[in-house]
Design a protein that fits this description.
mainly beta, 5-stranded parallel sheet, 2 helices
């Protein structure tokens, strides 16, 4: 059996009626059907197209689950509920429009729809359930409707192509696990939302006292937490593999669980003496973490409540006590000048230099280093002038390291190209 037409006289199809009909390619449901029951077409692997009549009010649990070749499905305006796993693992499905009649979209409804690229959501759904769009690897952009109130755990987990998500004013709850492994995601929040906000795609609570989720795709090696922040949410920097250094604001008190979990390039953390609690798994898989610059004394450090589980690298890092301030230094404008004797000078502006470190300038020609200069800088320095014996370079790159021996970058490098 490859095709089937259900007559209008049929009002109900039993649970799992066509489960495992692997040769079934198309179905035309009659106008007497009001509900597509549990598992009706589950594992109909050859099913490509379904015509659902306007009389249908609900699509049941696993109704079309694992219909791996289902390419087209039109959900009519009469449907009000789509239950859990209704279209899970429909791997060939590329687009779906959920009509405004739908108010309930169940958990796992479209999980593992790997090729789902375009989704138009109902303007009346009340939220996004657990893993509703989990592992929809081709989904790139989505705007939630104003009616949405919540985003549950794993709702968009594994949506590795999702780059932009807009959170409307009505959302009241977002699980910290909603966006796991969304490697390229920036989250933007309606300014009228009373519970959440964003800064350049980084998610915060409304008054920005809690950093909830860092934008993982940011390739800058350093990040400074805003001064308003007093707590870092669980797994906020989860698997931010480009991150090398984080500076916490002077007001941070609590660092949640797994905040820096799997930040494999993280080398240093600048931490104020206001911190009282550090949760578990904060340095799991952070094998590059070697230095913590702490604003307080050794006694104050020892009084912090640090969970032991998953904090090996944090607890075994070099703790630099009484670090003056916790802001990352910044390399500002750079200029190149030559005097009448042909001597070449590089002027470098600096800010946020709060402890002794070293300024490294590398001069290259056609990508090959021809000279380097190493200069000590001290707390409070605002500029340095570097003299070079060569004027044949076409690029200079400026670094700030903790020391020549340690070679730990403290901020983003600055490149100067000679035209």
């Amino acid at each position: 059996m490859t095709n089937i037409t259900i007559p209008d006289s049929v009002e109900d199809i039993g649970n799992g009626a066509f489960v495992g009909c692997s040769n079934l390619t198309s179905v035309d449901l009659g106008n007497g059907i009001t509900t597509i029951n549990t598992g009706t077409f589950n594992f109909c692997a050859s099913l490509k197209e379904v015509v659902i009549p306007d009389t249908v009010k609900s699509i049941g649990y696993k109704a079309f689950s694992s219909c791996s070749n289902l390419e087209n499905v039109t959900i009519p305006c009469g449907v009000t509920k789509i239950y859990a796993h209704a279209f899970s693992a429909c791997e060939a499905l590329t687009s779906v429009t959920i009509p405004d009649s739908v108010i309930y979209l169940g958990e796992y409804a479209f999980v593992h729809c790997y090729n789902l690229e375009d989704v138009v959501l109902s303007d009346n759904i009340i939220g996004i359930g657990a893993e509703t769009f989990g592992s929809c690897k081709s989904l790139t952009k989505l705007t939630l409707p104003e009616s949405a109130k919540y985003i549950e755990s794993g709702a968009f987990g594994g949506c590795e192509s999702l780059t932009e998500l807009t959170i409307p004013a009505g959302v009241e709850y977002i699980s910290y696990q909603s966006f796991e492994n969304c490697d390229n995601l920036y989250i933007f929040v309606d300014e009228n939302n009373e519970y959440y906000s964003d800064i350049d795609g980084v998610l915060f609570n409304k008054d920005k006292t809690e950093l909830i989720r860092y934008a993982k795709d940011i390739i800058e090696p350093t990040y400074t937490v805003p001064d308003t922040v007093t707590s870092i949410g669980d797994y906020a920097f989860y698997c931010c593999e480009a991150l090398e250094s984080v500076t916490l604001s002077d007001n941070v008190i609590d660092i949640g669980d797994g905040v820096f979990y799997c930040c494999t390039s993280l080398e240093s953390i600048f931490m104020p003496n206001t911190v009282l609690n550090i949760g578990y798994n904060n340095s799991a898989w952070c094998s590059s973490l070697t230095d913590v610059y702490y604003g307080g004394t050794e006694e104050e450090w020892n009084n912090i409540n640090i969970e032991e589980g998953g904090n090996y690298y944090l607890l075994n890092a070099d703790i630099h006590y009484n670090a003056v301030g916790t802001a990352s230094p910044v390399i500002g404008d750079c200029s190149i000048s030559t005097n009448t004797a042909g001597e070449c000078f590089v002027g470098i502006s600096l800010s946020n230099v709060e402890y002794d470190s070293q300024l490294i300038t590398v001069f290259t020609k056609d990508g090959v280093m021809i000279e380097n200069a190493i200069t000590d800088i001290s707390a409070g320095d605002t500029s340095k002038t570097i003299e070079t014996t060569s004027n044949s370079f076409d690029e200079a790159k400026v670094f700030i390291w903790n020391s020549l021996e340690g070679m730990k970058p403290l901020c983003k490098a600055k490149s100067i190209t000679i035209e």
